[in-house]
Amino acid sequence: MTMTKSHLAVFLILGYATSTYSEEKRPNIIFIMADDLGRNDISFYGENKNGVETPNIDRIFRSGIAFQNFHANSPVCSPTRAALMTGLYPDRAGVPGVVRQDQAENWGHLRHDLKLLPSQLKSLGYQTSMIGKWHLGYESPNIPNDRGFDHFHGFLGDMMDDYETHLRIGKNWMRHNLEEIQPKGHATDLFTSWAVDEVKSLSSKAQPFFLYLAYNAPHAPIQPGLSWLDKVRKSRPELTEKRAKLAALIEQMDDGIGQILDTVKSSGIENKTLIVFTSDNGGQLNLSADNGPWRGSKGQTFDGGLRVVCGATWPTHIPAGLKTHITSATFDWYPTLIEMAGGDLSKISSDGKSLQPVLENPSNIAPYENRELYFVRREGGLPYSGKTIEALRLGDWKIVLNTPFEPAQLFHLRDDPFETRDLSDDQPIKKRELIQRLQYHIQRGGQITWQIK
């Protein structure tokens, strides 16, 4: 944890180490999720060395806390989103793999009996809205308005075949609440515009609000607006065409996030609003994403597929410039946000661990040391055949099963953070221990139906 003496003084003087949030101090919450964003594909993490400029996303990280060891709960979309919404490991939420419109290729069905994050916050007096990509169900009862969101303006599906037409395999999944819509424009710009309007509307009311903004960008197809691509080509001619397109798509999203940050400020709610930014999984290397030195890509259970960006800002509660190296994951935000909204964590069930202690006091790292985290992905096709791939981290140890058809590999992340040396032969007892722990998680997930009945 990086914290200066001045940071600590600010915490003590302003009373940031309080354990609960009173009714008047409960924050508005804006949670922004990118899609397939590489760990180093923002300039804050990439240190402006990889051809991408994200000044607005960087504002979130520089004005608050940056999580240096943050993980998605899965290396693909739907399972991580299910973990955020439920606080559970994805297979325990009924979503071990990608939810798709074609049932022959579908690998998840969100549990009906769970109270999702927006429902939890709504019961605590919050207004709840979602803008953007849902990807947890195409029909009732698993669409946003059924699962706790008062307002939904976005896309139900997995990916768009075109950012301008918004179709997926010929079908339109754009919705305004329950109404099918056909808006014109680039999806990234549409989601930004709708989010700006929603912030203005929500901030005018007395209740606190929860706004979940999930961009499709920079998921394939890598299709930025032409003006954004032209800008990148002219300013960074050294980039390959593939890399320039990805940079332009990310920067188009970054500009939208800047508009939202500016709207929060101009609406007079900046000091009472928590803003979180992260990604659902790592970047796709064959589309020129940059996951930094970590091994692997989107879809894989090496850290390149799992380690993602995460930052949070709340000016009156989180001093600027903090960094934490605690081991944490997407589903930790479920109990965190409920607790910050005044909820009683003893009354909810969550596999995640609240991050409120580290947000309140960055030196409080003990709850996150030697932590166990489990990752899963189920998929079809020849590489997977409907089976799962997994990983399990226990402190500095990690067991990886990156395909269903090869032996598990064992790594020690403190000595080998980039997973280059399989220690299976050297550490058979440790490997056996982690395999047993992994089996326990697989058995728990096996109790949950993940296919539509």
Question: Can you tell me about this structure?
Answer:
- By secondary structure, the protein is α/β, with parallel strands linked by helices.
- It contains twelve helices and 18 strands.
- The strands form four sheets. The chain has a ten-stranded mixed β-sheet, sandwiched between helices. A four-stranded antiparallel β-sheet has the order 15-16-17-18, with helices on one face. Strands 3-14 form a two-stranded parallel sheet.
- The longest helix is centred in the middle third of the chain and has 26 residues, at 241-266.
- Mean pLDDT is 93; it is low at 1-19.
Biggest sheet features:
10 strands, mixed
Uncertain segments of ≥5 residues (pLDDT<50)?
A: 1-19
Strand order of the largest sheet: 9-8-5-4-10-1-11-12-2-13
What's the number of extended β-strand segments? 18
CATH architecture of the largest domain: 3-Layer(aba) Sandwich
What number is the mean pLDDT? 93
Share of residues in helices:
25-40%
Radius of gyration: 21 Å
Q: What percent of residues are in strands? A: 15-25%
Number of domains: 2
**Alpha carbon gap, first and last residue:** 47 Å
* SSE class: alpha/beta
Query: What is the CATH homology-level superfamily of the largest domain?
Result: Alkaline Phosphatase, subunit A
Task: Identify the CATH class of the largest domain.
Answer: Alpha Beta
The third-level CATH topology of the largest domain is Alkaline Phosphatase, subunit A
H/E series: HEHHEEHHEEEEEEHEHHEHEEEHHEEEEH
